[in-house]
């Protein structure tokens, strides 16, 4: 292959030289003056061609060497390929042996693992069975305990319910007895009087009110209770009359009418009404409701009027019988013993003001009466404090006078004591003088006696 390349190179070089010669001849024909220069250039060209040829020889030699090297490399490649081929076969054999060994090991490991898993499964099954038996036992025990506790609780609750039913039965009997009491006008009045006395006894002292008291000495009319108030003539008390009234019949009829009204407001439309007649039926029911409500409203007005008349009549009776100044205050209290009845009375428009204005009677329920009595009690305390203060002042005046007398007596006593002190001082001086004289006399007599004995 390299020889063919060099042959082509020589061929092209020869053609180049030939073309150069032909070109030179043509140039010589045209211009002979330049012949020498051309000859020189041809010489230079030949020299360069010679160098090129030498270089080509060198290149050819090098190519031959390269060719030999390539042959050596090709042989080495074949040798290496053979070695690689043999190595691949050897490696394939080793890989096959390794694969077989791995498969054997994996089978052995899998069998061993399966055996261990089976053993663990059996152990876990035994543990689970033990746990299940333990849980069942504890669950059974807990369930029995819970059931026992539940039955005990239910039994206690049933016993409580049974006792409650007994108490309810007793309460129902008591309510029946109370109803029987309240249906009788006389017993109803006694019950109101008992409740009024209970409130009075809780707030006031027994000496501060009278029971079944004749306010007017000239009359036989007796008020249920009269509270003593100071401020009468000649230091006498005046009395605040309180009388209990219980309009049970009128109130009961009014409440029953309210219940009937509430029941009529809950009328349900019949489910068997056809859809076609629904509007017409609804209109009929609405008209019926309006008629029933109008009828109930008329009854309400009637019963409220009866309650109003009862209250006015009772207030008039209290005013005429018990408001007798100067024996009593210029107003009285009408006590209604039930808060609901009192509340219903308050809802009557203008009745409170009218009764106070025309009959000078104040309507009071249990709560209102308690507030009034507490106010009176505070007034009694203030008055008692004022009375005791005046007595204390009188006592202090007496003490002041006694203290002044005591001061005069102390002054006189001090004067007497001063005089006595002076007398004592004078007596003390005289005593000293006498003692001095006695001492001198004693010495003189002693000398005399001594002189006499000497003689």
UniProtKB/TrEMBL annotation:
InterPro entries: DNA_recombination_RmuC. One of its GO terms (biological process) is DNA recombination. Keywords: Coiled coil, DNA recombination, Membrane, Transmembrane, Transmembrane helix. The chain crosses the membrane at residues 6-25. It comes from the Bacteria. Involved in DNA recombination. PANTHER family: DNA RECOMBINATION PROTEIN RMUC. Belongs to the RmuC family. This is DNA recombination protein RmuC homolog. It comes from Lyticum sinuosum.
